[in-house]
């Protein structure tokens, strides 16, 4: 009961915060800060809540005003596909790397840490430019032109955005997982498992990894804004017809409010499911 009350309060507070954020464009009127204009913007946003299904935007292809909510489905789909695939590939790759790190000797670990620390410092834009350069170079050398370097209104682009988002998050995940491996490998429960003769492979997959699942989820949740900001840059640069690119094109306050709700609600539902599905034994003392 306490869990339901806490999550309900969290949802209510989040909605007020999102509305306040969506009204921020009204804070600047004629290049000056105008608190009175912001208050009016807040009132408009709250009034708009009762008629979300009436919000429209100007569709460039159709050259007319169309309803927002029915038109958002393909944009949501593109963003969801890119985000989901990239996160799954990044997480699996980082876990496999953590296993390799766990089984490696001290010298190999040092080399792995130096390499990943260097790659983690590479900015997102480098991976974007580098991936486009590779595609262009591949085309010049082989004539292969199946990989697009930018999207259009009619065509979606997925391979390069997924690859770039995967790379920008992979080293982020790797750094956290390797730190956890170093902290946990001498824990008493692993020492006991070793004393019982359990093999290193089983130690990692059956004992060490489950203790990191919930912590990894908390780490991911705490850094979701950073990951989404990377996705925003990727969608804009590659001209992906996704949700973030849409809001950059049509940034009116009602549209911004709807998009913020659409981004937050899946995160909130994911949080509910994680708290419910992750066993208490995996949460430890957290």
How large is the radius of gyration? 23 Å
Judged by helices, strands and strand pairing, the structural class is mainly alpha
Describe the largest sheet. Answer: 2 strands, antiparallel
Q: What shape does the CA trace take?
A: globular
The topology string of helices and strands comes to HEEHEEHHHHHHHHHHH
CATH architecture label of the largest domain: Orthogonal Bundle
CATH class of the largest domain: Mainly Alpha
Q: Segments where pLDDT lies below 50 for 5+ residues? A: none
Classify the oligomer.
single chain
Strand content: under 5%
What is the number of independent domains? 2
Count of DSSP helices? 13
Q: Per CATH, what is the topology of the largest domain?
A: MetI-like fold
Kindly state the percentage of residues in helix: over 70%
Distance between the termini: 20 Å
- Overall pLDDT score: 84
């Amino acid at each position: 009961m306490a869990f339901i009350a806490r999550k309900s309060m969290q949802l209510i507070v989040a909605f007020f915060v999102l509305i306040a954020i969506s009204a921020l464009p009204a804070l600047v009127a004629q290049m000056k800060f105008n608190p009175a204009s912001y208050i009016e913007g807040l009132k408009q946003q709250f009034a708009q809540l009762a008629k979300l299904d009436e919000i429209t935007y100007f569709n460039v292809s159709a050259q007319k005003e169309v309803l927002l909510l029915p038109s958002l489905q393909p944009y949501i789909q593109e963003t969801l596909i890119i985000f989901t695939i990239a996160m799954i590939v990044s997480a699996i790759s980082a876990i496999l790397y953590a296993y390799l790190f766990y089984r490696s000797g001290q010298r190999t670990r040092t080399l792995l840490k130096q390499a990943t620390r260097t790659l983690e410092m590479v900015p997102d834009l480098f991976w974007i430019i580098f991936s486009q350069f590779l595609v262009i170079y591949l085309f010049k050398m082989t004539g292969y032109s199946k990989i697009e370097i930018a999207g259009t209104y009619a065509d979606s682009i997925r391979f390069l955005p997924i690859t770039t988002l995967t790379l920008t998050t992979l080293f982020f995940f790797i750094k956290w997982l390797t730190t956890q491996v170093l902290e946990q490998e001498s824990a008493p429960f692993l020492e006991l498992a070793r004393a019982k003769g359990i093999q290193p492979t089983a130690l990692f997959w059956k004992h060490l990894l489950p203790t990191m699942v919930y912590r990894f989820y908390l780490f991911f949740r705490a850094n979701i804004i950073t990951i989404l900001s990377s996705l925003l840059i990727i969608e804009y640069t590659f001209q992906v017809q996704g949700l973030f690119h849409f809001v950059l094109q049509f940034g009116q306050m009602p549209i911004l409010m709807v998009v913020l709700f659409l981004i937050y609600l899946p995160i909130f539902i994911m949080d509910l499911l994680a708290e419910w599905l992750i066993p208490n034994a995996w949460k430890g003392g957290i």
